[in-house]
Amino acid sequence: TCRNNHDDDMGKLVSFGNVLLAAIYRHPSATDGNGTVEVWSTTDSGANWVLDVTIPSGDGPKAFVDYVNKDGARAPVLVLSEGAYSIDYTNNTFSLIQELDGNPASGRWAAVSNLGALYIGVGEDAVMVVNIDSNGQKKSFISGPPGDKLVTARQGHVNYMLPVNEWMLVAYGGHAASKNASIFMIDTQVILKDPETGKEFNPWHHMYQDATANLDIVALAYSPEDDATP
Questions:
Q1: Is 176 left (phi over 0), alpha (psi -120 to 50) or beta?
Q2: Predicted model pTM
Q3: Is the previous residue joined to 145 through a cis bond, with omega within 30 degrees of 0?
Q4: Residue 2: its pLDDT value, please?
Q5: Over the chain, what is the mean pLDDT?
Q6: Do 212 and 180 touch, CB atoms closer than 8 A?
Q7: Which of 8, 96, 107, 145 has the greatest count of CB atoms below 10 A from its CB?
Q8: Strand partners, 132
Q9: In this structure, are strands 127-132 and 138-144 parallel, antiparallel, or unpaired?
């Protein structure tokens, strides 16, 4: 994956059984670029690649995950700023499973929780949860952050997500003057309901705030050890 200003939008890989898939952005400013994302697959460790589908997009691939299609069957899912798409590399088709708003920050580093839901950052200051069961029944809600908005210094968008046990760790904000990067832990096993609006959400726990503004936290790692050594 190419890293440009921590945007990570030029390419993504996902391993799906014995198939490796790559999503590559043909940037419109590049030679022969046409503003599409091409999905390629290989079954022989990269010796030969096959072009499976081409999807128009105003930005590159934000995330590529092992999830499910709209029928609830396991499938690779490509997340773009415009939506999350299941990829059928056998029949060379794709299908929209969740529409997004087209914001360049939407979808970046979306991840599947250990309880089976897809967590997607949407625009500024929100994370959406999409859950499709084995019968193809879909439920989605805004996980948070809770309340109307975070305080100004913590506002922003997702820079990285990492599932750990029942938690989804999120590196958030920090990408502007007066904005400080934070790490939150989202409790994915608890869904609360606002008694006034009826809206569902997850509890968010603030774990860390960087002291320096306009710096991003671009990766998170987890160790099962208790000595802080990965």
A1: beta
A2: 0.92
A3: yes
A4: 41
A5: 91
A6: yes
A7: 107
A8: 138
A9: antiparallel
The mean per-residue pLDDT over the stretch 112-120 comes to 97
- Going by C-beta distance under 8 Å and a sequence separation of 6 or more, which residues neighbour residue 182? 154, 171, 172, 173, 174, 206, 207, 208, 209, 210, 217
Distance, CA of 69 to CA of 86 (rounded, Å) = 5
- 144: which 2 tokens? 């948070």
Distance in angstroms (rounded) separating the CA atoms of residues 174 and 171: 9
Identify residue 165 by its one-letter amino acid code. Answer: N
Q: Give pLDDT, residue 3.
A: 47
150: DSSP letter? -
Tens-digit pLDDT profile for residues 23-56: 999 988 888 889 999 999 999 999 999 999 999 9
CB atoms within 10 A of CB 78: 27
* C-alpha torsion sign, points 132, 137, 142, 143: negative
Task: Report how far residue 207's alpha carbon sits from residue 72's, in angstroms, rounded to the nearest whole number.
Answer: 34
The two structure tokens encoding residue 136: 């193809």
Q: Under a CB-based contact definition with an 8 Å cutoff, are residues 14 and 64 in contact? A: yes
Residue 68 and residue 92: Cα distance in Å, rounded? 16
Place of tokens 């046990």: 165
Q: Which of 226, 12, 197, 212 is nearest to 110 (CA)?
A: 12
According to DSSP, residue 191 is labeled -
